[in-house]
Amino acid sequence: RKEMSEESESGLVLLLGVATAAVVVAVAAATVFFKKDDSKPKSSDANNKGKSNTKKVKKATEHKKKVKRNKGEGENNSEKKKTTPATTTMKKKNLKKLLHQRQQYTGPKPEEDDLFSTALKGHSGTVLDAKYSPDGNFVVSTSEDGSLRFWDVKSFKDKDHKYIRKNVELDYGLQLAFTTNGHAVSVGLARSGAARLFKIGKHSISNMEGDKGKDCHSESHLVSMGMAANHDHRYFLLCFADTTLVVCGFDGRVVEKINTHMSHNNFATVSPCGHFFGCCGFTTSVIMWHVTSETGTVSKCEKSIVLTGHSTSVIHFCFSKDSLHAASLAKNGEWHLYNIDVRWREKEDPHVLASNKFAPAGDHGRIAISSDNSTVAVSVGARLSLYSSRSGDILHTIDHAHKGFVNAIDFSPLDDFFVTAGSKGVHVWNNLPGAFELLRCLEEDLVHAKTKAATNHIEFRISETKKLIAKIERKTSHGAADGTEHKTK
C-alpha cells in the first residue's frame, strides 16, 4: 500500500504540473489575442489617420535622403536653384512659344520670292480658306474673325484692293464652295457644324434663309464642307471629325448619313461635276462615293473608287476642275496624282500619273491641281512647291508663303495666278512655272501628233499659252527676265 500510494502521489504531482503549464500557456495566448484586437483601429477615421501618418513619415524620410544625397554631390549642387513641377512646365511652355515664333518668322519673307504678286490684307484673324469665283472676277476669303471678304481681281494691280465685307453672324467660316454658275457661295460653319448659303449680287451679298444640316446631330466638330450645285445635283456634304459624313439637300433635309470606318476623318470634298464626293482619314487610302440624283435631289450614294498607294494616313486630297483627276497628300509628305476617269463599275482601278515626296507633312498639308492639269501645288507648314503633273519634277519652291501655316491653295480659271490663305491675309502668286511647264508639254505633244487636226489643235494651244505667259509677265513687276529664269528651271 505504501508503494502504491507513493506512485499515485507522484503521478498526481506530474498531472498537476502539466495542467498548470497548460493553463499558463492558455492565459498567455489569450492575452496576446486580446492585445491584437485592442491594437486594431475602432473606426475608419483612425485608420485614415494612421495611413496619413505613415505617408508623412515616408515623405519625411524620402526628403531626408534627398537632402543627404544633394549634400554629398558637392558644393556646386547646393548652389543650384530648386525646381518645382510648375517651373518646369513654365519652361516647357516658353520653349514651345519660342520655337513657334522662330518657326513663324525666320527665313525669307514672302515678298522676296519671284512669284509673289500682292497681299490681300484686312482680316484680323487667321484666314482659313480662299477661292476664285468660277468666272475669275473675284476671290472670296473666310477668316476666324467671322467675316467673308469678296476681293475684286481687277484691283490686285492697285495699291488699295477693293472688297465687299459680309459678316457670318454668331459663327465663322471654315471652308468655301461655289455654285457652278458662281451666283452663290456656301460656307461651312465651324461652331454650328452646318452650311450657310450666300447669294452674290453685283454690289451686295445677301444671306439665304436657313442653315443647312444643322439638325444632323453629330457629336463631333465640323472638319470640312463641300457642295454640288448644278443642273444634275444639288446637295451639301458635311464632314465631321469622328467617322460621320452627312449628305443633305438644299432644303436642309438630311438625305444620308455615312460611316467611313476610318477611325477619324481628315478631309472631304465634292467633285466640281457633283457626281462624286470623297473622304480621307486615318487610313492610307481615299474612298469615293458616286451620287445618283433625280431632278436634282439625291436618291442614292454608293461606294465607287478607292485611291491607294500611300504608306501612311492621307491628310488631304482634291479633285481637278474637270473632275477627271484627283490628287492626295499623305502624312509622310508623299503625294500622288490619279486619273479617275475609269470604269469603276467594272472594277477598273484608277491610274497613278505622277508622284513625288515633299517634306513630312504631319497633320497639316494642302494639295491642289491647276485648272489645265499641268501643275500640282503642295504645301507643308509655310513651305509650298509646284510640281509637274506629267513627270512629277519640282518646278519652283516658295520657302515662306505665309508667317504661319498655308491653309488653302486655289488656282485661277486661266491659271495665270494662284492664291494661298494663311495668317491674317491672302497672298497672290503668279503661275509662270506652270505656264512654262504647260508650254513644254504641248511642244512634246506636237512632236508626237499623228493627225493634222491634232497638230492644228496643239499649235493653237501653244499660241494661247505664249499669250498667257506674256500676259503674266506684263501684270508682274519682274518682267521678261524672270520668265526666262523660270523657263530654264
Description:
The chain starts with a helix and ends with a helix. The chain has helices at residues 2-39, 44-72, 75-79, 85-105, 432-447, 452-475, 480-488; strands at 116-121, 127-132, 138-143, 147-152, 163-167, 173-178, 184-189, 195-200, 205-207, 222-229, 234-240, 244-249, 254-259, 265-270, 276-281, 286-294, 297-307, 314-319, 325-330, 334-339, 351-357, 365-369, 375-380, 383-388, 394-398, 408-411, 417-422, 425-430. Strands 1-28-27-26 form a four-stranded antiparallel β-sheet, with no helix packed on it. With 489 residues, the chain is α+β, with helices and mostly antiparallel strands.
Instruction: Characterize the quaternary organization of these chains.
Output: single chain
**What proportion of the residues form beta strands (DSSP E)?**
35-45%
Strand count, sense and closure of the main sheet? 4 strands, antiparallel
Q: How big is the Rg?
A: 37 Å
Give the termini separation. Answer: 138 Å
Number of helices: 7
Q: Major sheet: order of its strands?
A: 1-28-27-26
What's the short story on this structure?
With 489 residues, the protein is of the alpha+beta class. The chain contains 7 helices and 28 strands.
Short descriptors:
single chain, 489 residues, 4-stranded antiparallel sheet, 7 helices, 35% strand
Write the layout of secondary structure elements.
Layout: H1 2-39, H2 44-72, H3 75-79, H4 85-105, E1 116-121, E2 127-132, E3 138-143, E4 147-152, E5 163-167, E6 173-178, E7 184-189, E8 195-200, E9 205-207, E10 222-229, E11 234-240, E12 244-249, E13 254-259, E14 265-270, E15 276-281, E16 286-294, E17 297-307, E18 314-319, E19 325-330, E20 334-339, E21 351-357, E22 365-369, E23 375-380, E24 383-388, E25 394-398, E26 408-411, E27 417-422, E28 425-430, H5 432-447, H6 452-475, H7 480-488
Helix pairs in contact: 5-6
